């Protein structure tokens, strides 16, 4: 049921809001109250085609623009993003539910990627070798792929699009973003800020939608590369469908991040870290800790500290400054996470903290679920095997280091992992032996800085490239090597043999 106060969101095509009447819509809810606050149009194949036409028309000039011009646009965007942070964070909090400080944090992490991309003149440098043969020089160049598209998840409505857009644009591409339909508003404001910064119309477009829109993107011959971030089944589908259509695809999937605590660890640091990393953003982070692996006798010493901290957490609406943990994103997601708590109980795990009892006065229709803690979880249980993506932490007790490592390495996901110990040798051994893309040592959420690349292994990544950093630059460019002879050609006559450099 929609209300008169609800916002009408639009696509952003060819430098402005797209006024074409939509055939289908989705509803955006405010997570803290459960109210419908916006209607979002779902793009058809024809809408996607309009965005692609705008992108193709704009890309040629943008790809040929001087690096100075491109850098100035990125700097201009960086300034505007900085000035609009509070406004953007409020939009993110309203639609996603995360607390305001967390929304500001994700914008800052996205801004760091913009700052990295501002160094594009350095990042796009090729190599040059003079005299590879008599009078012959060689140099390499990195060229734009053309039109790239990004399909992003609900949990970081600003940061994840900003993992992609600044790098793709810096490399001279046009970009089409398909943000999550659950919290799509921030992405349109982001496109407007790019326009204000001087980005030519059509270089950045935003189309909203669901699977129909995504399929139109994957099947469009005018799109050359697709970046995806979301759940594993969809990531696999995007990778297989996109590559079959001849596109370059990087598809980052789901996660089940373990935190291993060795007996010699600082247990107060470990307790602070586990609670922050498991329940921050209500566990809706791809780098959230969802499995705590206690080694030896750690569980009995660590769990009281964790439970004490859980007891002090303030669950409430994200816009209230005292709240530390907000609601889940949608009613459906709330039901799914609560269903996992039921499942854990049914399968015999010990629910030592039950967040289902948490009530937020005045927000009875909000999608709140308090912190849940399961002890004595085993690897066969559903709460261990599945990505829950909510405030549910499972404790698995391992007798020793080898069993803990084996548990992590047998998991199908391999996004992030952390080890807590004061033994440098053990930490070093773990960093080398663990089969996971991002490793923290006494750091629970080891998200790499923008100048490194972000991404996991195994079912957490389909494709070869991680995002941003050097791999991001490579993903959005194609290599070219030029071999040139100036100015005196050698006239050696026709030679049908394989070219040899002398
Ligand atoms: P999701 O896979 O449901 O949706 C992601 C995007 O795909 C959205 O834009 C959505 O509209 C689209 N989509 C959904 N179903 C589709 C389908 N059947 N066919 C085509 N497109 C479809 O993910 P989500 O619920 O929005 O986000 C949470 C997930 O994202 C979690 O699994 C989380 O771990 C993952 N994630 C991973 C990373 C990472 O870096 N690996 C980062 C953030 C989130």
Walkthrough of the structure:
By secondary structure, the chain is α/β, with parallel strands linked by helices. The chain is 38% helix and 22% strand. It is built from 16 helices and 23 strands. The strands form 6 sheets. Strands 15-16-17-14-13-19-20 form a 7-stranded mixed sheet, sandwiched between helices. Helix 9 (232-244) links the parallel strand 11 and strand 12 (248-252). The mean pLDDT is 96. It binds nicotinamide-adenine-dinucleotide. Nicotinamide-adenine-dinucleotide is lined by residues 151-156, 160, 178, 180-181, 210-211, 214, 229-231, 234, 237, 252-255, 286, 387, 389, 415, 456, 460.
Question: Averaged pLDDT, please?
Answer: 96
Can you summarize the main beta sheet? 7 strands, mixed
Shape: globular
Fraction of residues in helix: 25-40%
Gyration radius over CA: 25 Å
- First CA to last CA: what distance? 76 Å
Identify every distinct bound molecule in the structure, by name, code or SMILES.
nicotinamide-adenine-dinucleotide
How is the largest sheet built, in terms of strand order? 15-16-17-14-13-19-20
Helix count equals 16
β-sheet strand percentage: 15-25%
Structural class: alpha/beta
Low-confidence stretches: none
Oligomer: single chain
Count all strands and give the number.
23
